[in-house]
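For the sake of clarity, the format in which proteins appear in this thesis is described at this point. The fold follows as a row of integers, each naming the local backbone shape at the matching residue. One such record is shown here in full, so that the layout can be seen directly:
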Amino acid sequence: MKKKVIIEFSERWLKAVCYSSAGIGHASIEKIILEPIVLDTPNLSTSLNNVFKQIGQRKGLEVSVVLSRNKITVRQLDLPSRDPAEIESMLGLHVIRQVPYPKEEIVWSHQNLGFDGLSNTHILLAVAHREMLRNIFNAFTVLNILPESMLMSSQGVIHYLNETIKDKSLLRDAYLVLDIDYNFSDLILVNNQNLRSSVIISQGSEQLKLQQEREKFCAELKQALVVFNNEIPNTKPARLFITGAPYELEALMEDCLKKDFNLKFQFVKCTEPDKFQVKNAQEVSFAPVLGFTYQRKKEDINFTLPEAQIKREIKLKVQQILTMGACLTYIFIVLGATVLVRINQLQSYRDRLLQRIGQL
């Protein structure tokens, strides 16, 4: 089975899952790692190296990267076209209006959420700062590793729920997910199994230890729910799933949600880190990396750096050249062996012929 690694980057932690998968059925998790980091290239490379030391190998791994949602800008756009090439061209014009950075400093990806039946296509646009992606890419380059993909944590959370919620009827209609990480929370709106919108709440498990921050958290959560209602008025989620750091928030959520929004909520605890005795696992959310371990869609947001694409194409060309060289070598060996056999047959025939002539 192919061994794979998924690593999520945040300001303080590297969260990694090493697993084996044959492409069919459930993944077999071999190791879960939580490694402290500082997000600059030298320390990041050191932390990455520590992760691969714990895994026990570097070569032959399929490595994917997950980017924390608080490092990504997410927007929903309605574009008047159904043609993929035209949509791509329109996005190039729209993206510079969505973020306060020059076009040369950003990398974007998108997911087509479908046609509205009238004139517009719903597009989920995700934008990341190029320098952040380059720092991560360079850290892998130092270790001679080329990541296969750079994914967005929010979609990993959705995959985790699809895998762990036993009653699938709860996921048929629109629902919300609140993923609580150590320094922020990600409120996600899901409809038709797709991420429709996402809002960052600035309090995570670390801040929620303080009563004052809990009040701010409740205020931001209510404001985010109002934003969802205004952005997508026809979507009425009736349930909120809470993943990530398992803090005692039941009373707080009761106060925030049921009084004003009449929302049912359900805690979904990540139990996998407990099996591997991961220290400080209760401070962070492993839902994104575990979600991409269990499931992945080709439509998922995937960021691609131009330099990473070039390296990937060079690697593919080298593999093609090596394969072609091996095939040509095999052909030459077979032809050579065939010629030698034929020569040997001719020599044998000549010797028999000379022997018979001598007898005559």
